[in-house]
Specification:
The complex is a heterodimer of chains A (about 325) and B (about 650). Helix content of chain A is about 75%, strand content about 0%. Chain A contains 12 helices and no strands. By secondary structure, chain B is of the alpha+beta class. Chain B has 22 helices and 27 strands. In chain B, the strands form 7 sheets. In chain B, strands 2, 3, 4, 5, 10, 21, 22, 23, 24, 25 and 26 form an 11-stranded mixed β-sheet that branches. A 4-stranded antiparallel β-sheet of chain B has the order 13-18-20-19, sandwiched between helices. In chain B, helix 7 (about 155-175) runs parallel beside helix 21 (about 610-625). Chain B is globular. The chains are: A mainly alpha (about 325), B alpha+beta (about 650). At the A-B interface, helix 3 and helix 7 of A face helix 3 and helix 16 of B.
Chain lengths: ~325, ~650
């Protein structure tokens, strides 16, 4: 019962959190100079001041900020995130259209992170304080420290430009086609590297901790093979913290893909977000921010729930 | 609903607005002089204002500030502003009274007026782009006389002579200093042959693919990378991969304002006339044209055909297309204004009230991509689709009406005698009948309509923000009719009657470095706008050709001519000598530009001057860096005006 109440409580907290996010974002967007109309008419000498005012009035951009916010919120509550200025598309439609690309990239990065991090983490824990451990820890520290845009640029320089084999331009194939896997490799590695490093470090620490526990000594005393001890008993226990971290990092992967998508010209949500900011596309900025906010809140909740399910000793109030 | 009458704001061109304001406007501007109580003293405190987002511009602004200060006569404060903020600031009608020196960039065309009127036409003040509020009636009149008078309409040489009088006049007046003309840098692999860009990025690809007017044609040949080829080596077929730096926002010609949209449309749509590299006009969809009639009238001649419409919030409130407005009325001051609308324009023309009548005989046998035959009716329907569109202001700046005479003859009428009419009036991308009916903005694959034109390529596929593909039109009219159908054609026999590349595949890649990378991996054949740092590598690389072309984009600074001591033209001439044009081009923009020795760029030499080289020779000395001369002039101003000076 405790868990259900906990989830319910957390779910109820989502609307106020998103409300706060929306207010802060809305205010920040309006604090920056310029608006969609000034972007539209910039350097277009054929638009005079009266026309500009007319455009502003049409989009309601000349209303007081509070009125604009209330109008926007009223729309959102009815599922209308507003239009993208100067086009016939609506913000929610753009978000939905771009989302699959970002999910594919994030998923690839996430799988890459786990596939790299878990075996390396186990290896490092088992070989604690030996050369292999030191090397993998060094790599992990590098992975966390390297900014992902730089890593992306270096990968582009190394693979497509120097060694060849990879295209520089973004894919045209549908996401479902097998060729996409090839396209996903470089941006996927870029997105996943920092997470891989973080997970690997947690994996190593918790595994090393578990290895010192008495049940391991008992198992060894029983004469169980080391392999069985590690893979069957220790791994399962050490995975608890990794699973929760991986859930939290998933949210970070989506947010972090903003930069990577620009570097790789990946046609996803992140690139759209950057374009929206440049174009002062308020509705689109708000929709994407809210989506990322919602995603982070939910993934954090998932992490907490998983934690509780994996470790029955944990209780919530 | 999307494009209701609300959009049709009074986009009467500024020039005419001023005529409406009349003397009152000029007097109030003149009244600004000397209102400022502060005593002028040297060293003079000056503020430069510049767009912070333009790194190059900020750099030379600082250089110029330094050189001004070096004379000892100025203390310069350089203020940078974020882009939109800056635009809003400088287009404020009150800006000229601040006394700031503003740094800007602007794009001109083959119409020489675009290099003088934008900066110096008084009516552009507070709108575009004259931010110093010139009230120089004499110059306004000269600009008008070089375009809107019957004698220049009939005598092209006279028109050039008129411009040759304008350039020294503007130079002497020195209300602004044009620093340099920007060069576009195109890079293509050696697989590409014959590629010649134009001064305008939006027409460069369509022009390069096939332009008999300059005997330009582009083809692909992987096996010949020597870089030296001629028509006899021409290869047909292949797919040209082109890297475009931003999304195509619209395929709907009257509902798009940006260069990428025009770039995309240029491959599909055609106009009645075509332009060569120097801006000369050639009949295209039209077999020939002829100016039938020129009437010496001004816009008040339409008075009897005008209706009064109310003004709301300083804007004309009508759903009709306003073709022109009575020159004595002003939406800023009157409650209603008299305007001419399409409803009564036929009556005016029937009564012989029009500025010019130009008759276009159309080629027979031209088909749209959907099979419809192109006739005079398409021209009329196309014009009507420009009503109340985003391009209404520039279209109906000069165009009065289009009338189909018979199936293959159409008359275009100009509002007043206009030396630019032959260039301006036929500037419509001709629509098919079906698509001419579409609501504004709907002629777009995103809205479910694939664009259909008469052009050499047919729309194939477009993925928003990703790619755009066109394929060769198998029934291209010019290939069917043959080049001999063009009366003016006298080129070599082997020149093809249409483009020879089968498919154009445009990748939309906003990141400059990614586009540059794709060029190096061979994923792209041609692109424009790669990072400046890469250019030297491309220059040195035998696998690539770097092609530069001077564009209509010019960088300039404007002086606050209403504020002392900048109201003295000798001071403005003096500081003009403190701008190191050559140094800026060589050192700040790495040579990718042309110093502006005159206000007219090289590519408009044919349209804007009778003898361009003589003009450059005459005016160059005014624009040379010359500190000594500058100080001489400043001392003269100080002495004559009795300014204090501690220099």
């Amino acid at each position: 019962m405790g868990l259900q109440r906990f989830i319910l409580k957390r779910l109820l907290l989502i609307p106020p959190i998103l409300f706060g996010v929306s207010i802060v974002t809305f205010a920040l967007v309006h604090l920056t100079p310029g608006d969609p109309v000034s972007q539209m008419v910039a350097m277009n000498p054929n638009v005079d001041a009266a026309q500009e005012a007319e455009l502003r009035a049409r989009y309601g951009l000349d209303d007081p900020l509070v009125v604009q916010y209330v109008d926007w919120m009223a729309g959102v509550l009815q599922g209308d995130f507003g239009e993208v200025y100067g086009s016939s598309q609506d913000a929610a439609g753009v978000l939905v259209a771009r989302l699959p690309e970002t999910i594919a990239l994030g998923l690839f990065g996430w799988v890459f992170a786990l596939v790299i991090a878990i075996p390396t983490g186990i290896y490092a824990a088992v070989k604690k304080d030996q050369l292999g451990d030191t090397v993998s820890r060094f790599l992990a520290l590098s992975g966390i420290s390297i900014p992902n845009f730089w890593l992306g640029l270096m990968l582009i320089l190394l693979f497509p430009l120097t060694l060849g084999g990879w295209p520089v331009l973004p894919p045209r194939e549908s996401l479902a086609s097998p060729a996409m896997l090839w396209y996903l490799v470089l941006p996927g590695i870029t997105v996943g590297t920092a997470s891989a490093a973080a997970i690997m470090r947690v994996m190593r620490t918790s595994m090393a901790e578990e290895l010192n526990k008495e049940y391991v000594t008992a198992a060894r005393a029983k004469g169980l093979p080391e392999r069985t001890i590690i893979l069957k008993h220790v791994l399962r226990n050490s995975l608890i913290s990794v699973v929760t971290l991986a859930a939290t990092l998933t949210a970070g992967i989506v947010a972090g893909s903003v930069v990577v998508e620009v570097v790789f010209s990946w046609p996803g949500l992140g690139r759209e977000f950057v374009d929206a900011i440049h174009g002062r596309e308020i509705n689109l900025i708000m929709a994407i921010t809210l989506f990322i906010g919602l995603f982070i809140v939910i993934m954090n909740l998932v992490a907490d729930v998983l934690y509780a399910m994996l470790d029955p000793r944990i209780r919530y109030d | 609903m999307v494009h209701s009458g609300k959009e049709s704001q009074p986009t009467i061109p500024r020039r005419r607005l001023l005529q409406g304001l009349g003397a009152a406007g000029a007097v109030s501007i003149a009244g600004c002089f000397g209102d400022d109580g502060d005593e002028v003293s040297f060293p003079l405190q000056v503020t430069f204002e510049v767009d912070a987002d333009q790194a190059d511009r900020v750099e030379w602004t600082q250089l110029i500030a330094q050189l001004w200060e070096n004379t000892g006569y100025f203390e310069v404060d350089v203020q940078t502003h974020a882009s939109d903020d800056y635009t809003n600031r400088i287009f404020d009608p009150a800006y000229p009274e601040n006394g700031y020196v503003a740094f800007l960039g602007l794009s001109g065309t083959y119409n020489p007026e675009s290099f003088v009127d934008a900066l110096h036409g008084t009516a552009n003040q507070g709108q575009c782009c004259n931010v110093n509020g010139l009230g120089y009636d004499e110059l306004d009149e000269m600009i008008d006389q070089a375009r809107f008078s019957t004698d220049v309409v009939e005598d092209d040489a006279l028109r050039r002579e008129r411009y040759d009088e304008i350039w020294p006049e503007v130079q002497e007046y020195a209300g602004s200093s044009i620093i340099h003309f920007v060069e576009d840098v195109w890079i293509h692999s050696t697989d590409v042959h014959g590629f010649e860009p134009t001064p305008f990025v939006e027409t460069s690809l369509s022009y390069a693919l096939h332009s008999p007017q300059d005997e330009v044609v582009t083809w692909l040949d992987e096996n010949n990378t020597s870089g030296e080829t001629d028509l006899s080596d021409l290869q047909e077929g292949g797919t040209l991969h082109y890297g475009l730096d931003a999304n195509i926002d619209s395929f709907d010609p009257p509902y798009s304002l940006d260069v990428r949209s025009t770039f995309a449309q240029e491959l599909l749509f055609e106009q009645l006339v075509a332009t060569d590299f120097e801006g000369n006009l050639y009949p295209w969809l039209a077999e020939r044209w002829e100016v039938l009639d020129v009437n010496d009238i001004d816009r008040s001649a339409y008075e009897d055909y005008m209706e009064s419409v109310p003004v709301e919030d300083g804007a004309i409130a009508t759903d009709e297309q306003v073709l022109l407005q009575h020159p004595e009325d002003s939406p800023g001051e009157d409650d209603e204004v008299r305007v001419l609308t399409p409803e009564t324009v036929d009556d005016a023309i029937d009564d012989g009230v029009f500025g010019m009548q130009i008759r276009y005989d159309l080629h027979e046998g031209i088909e749209f991509h959907d099979g419809e035959e192109f006739t005079a009716e398409n021209v009329v329907l196309t014009m009507e689709r420009y009503y109340n569109s985003q391009l209404e202001a520039q279209t109906f700046d000069s165009l009065l009406h289009a009338v189909a005479v018979d199936e293959y003859t159409v008359d275009l009428y100009a509002q007043v005698p206009d030396a630019e009419a032959e260039r301006e009036l036929p500037g419509l991308y001709i629509h098919s009948s079906a698509q001419a009916e579409l609501p504004g903005g709907d002629l777009d694959p995103r809205e479910g309509t694939d664009p259909v034109g008469t052009g050499p390529y047919v729309f194939e596929e477009f993925e928003d923000e990703s790619y755009y593909v066109v394929t060769k039109n198998d029934d291209y009219w010019l290939e069917d009719l043959g080049l001999d159908a063009l009366e003016w054609w006298d080129g070599p026999e082997e020149f093809p009657a249409g483009p020879v590349i089968d498919e154009i595949d445009v990748d939309i890649v906003p990141e400059d470095s990614t586009r540059s990378g794709a060029l190096q991996t061979g994923e792209l054949h041609v692109t424009e706008g790669v990072p400046m740092d890469d250019l030297d590598d491309y220059e040195a690389d035998d696998d690539f050709v770097v092609n530069t072309v001077t564009t209509g984009l010019y960088q300039f600074l404007q002086y606050p001519v209403q504020v002392e001591p900048f109201d003295d033209e000798r001071l403005r001439q003096a500081v003009n000598h403190l701008i190191p044009r050559e140094q800026i081009v060589d050192e700040i923009i790495n040579g990718y530009g042309q110093p502006a020795w005159v206000m007219l760029p090289e590519f408009a030499r044919e349209t804007g001057s009778a003898d361009y080289d003589a003009l450059v020779e005459e005016l160059r000395e005014y624009n040379e860096f010359d500190e000594e001369r500058a100080i001489e002039l400043i001392e003269e101003v100080i002495e004559d005006r009795g300014y204090e000076s501690s220099v």
